[in-house]
Amino acid sequence: MQLTERQKRIAEIVKKEQPITGEKIARKLQVTRSALRGDLAVLLSGQILSARRHLGYYYVGGGEDPVQEKLASLCIRDYMSEPIVVRADSDVDSAIYRLFTEDIGTLFVGTPEDVIGVVSRKDLIKSAMGRDDLSKMPISMVMTPRTKIVYAGPEDTVLSAAEKLLHYEVDCLPIGTVHTDDGEERFSVVGRLSKTNIVKIFVALGEKRAANRKKTE
Amino acid sequence: MQLTERQKRIAEIVKKEQPITGEKIARKLQVTRSALRGDLAVLLSGQILSARRHLGYYYVGGGEDPVQEKLASLCIRDYMSEPIVVRADSDVDSAIYRLFTEDIGTLFVGTPEDVIGVVSRKDLIKSAMGRDDLSKMPISMVMTPRTKIVYAGPEDTVLSAAEKLLHYEVDCLPIGTVHTDDGEERFSVVGRLSKTNIVKIFVALGEKRAANRKKTE
């Protein structure tokens, strides 16, 4: 949203002196009250100001940036992909084969109800260095074990997952929940959210514009 | 941006009958011209309508979605990372070592002025399968050669790069330009843009809100 210089000045005034009446703002700007009507309507509709009867205008802020609001509102459940789970006794070679056939970067190890580890491309490259027979090495030897897994819940925000991907330097998070079964803590997985999912969201949000334009033209 | 019911109706009217004067809009809504002043100001500032003197109001559309506008406006030059270039006679083992020390997923091969290939984690995993001595294999045997490289220019939009990452199923694009040198076509690299860069942008745009809030509180 583009504000005029006067609208920015009004927002500044309200920010400092809230609550403030329209009459007082007009006096500060040396204009008539009615000359401000359009500017105040713009600031209210853009959720930069709010108004309360008998009190005047408040600065709401934050609402200035609809991009932040949109990105912070997305929920993982709506954007995650299917998890791919391989058995704990798979060998490294067949896990690599699976990565290529599914064209993904990260596998989960165990069962969907009981994930015991995660294997990424990084783990596989490490295991491949200086070893000669990957077909005999069990996947459990190269995976990151459950206790060290970084994960997110399906109701968390995509933004919080993106922060984890960056902070922990991983390409993909398992999406699921930790629960206790017979006194044992288990992690069950319902999805995966990778950097690729975030790029897809970026493209979907950025491209809609062109699609809408085509529709109206 | 939140529009009132009347603002939405005005936008619809202008969309159908553009260009249309303020007087005509007022007549259609059975209100006075001055009663519309605030609404029109909101629609103009939100870039939903534009106005031309003597002609009246036009529907601009698209501008309804500031998220699209923002994401589509970002330029690669402002967000790319440093390119990491290894010599063409490097062996696979040392390239893998470099990937881990730099903590990245993709290396460029050759010199910054003359990139002859790209090596990704995917390429390295493929090369590692069923081979026993990576320290003797030259990187040029596993790289994607220049003629098949997908790249972008530094002045292109991040959005177009994100589309390429998805469409060509790669994790990282070299950013640079193709030029002719002594009749030979060469690709010189000035940066790289990976899925990680896009996730960083996502987090930066989504998080600002919290940062601003802290500042004003």
UniProtKB/TrEMBL annotation, chains A, B:
This protein is called Helix-turn-helix transcriptional regulator
Query: Where in the numbering of this chain does the CBS domain appear?
Result: 82-129, 148-203
InterPro entries attached to this UniProt entry = CBS_dom, CBS_dom_sf, Diverse_CBS-Domain, HTH_11, WH-like_DNA-bd_sf, WH_DNA-bd_sf
Record's Gene3D superfamilies?
A: CBS-domain, Winged helix-like DNA-binding domain superfamily/Winged helix DNA-binding domain
Q: Which UniProt keywords apply?
A: CBS domain
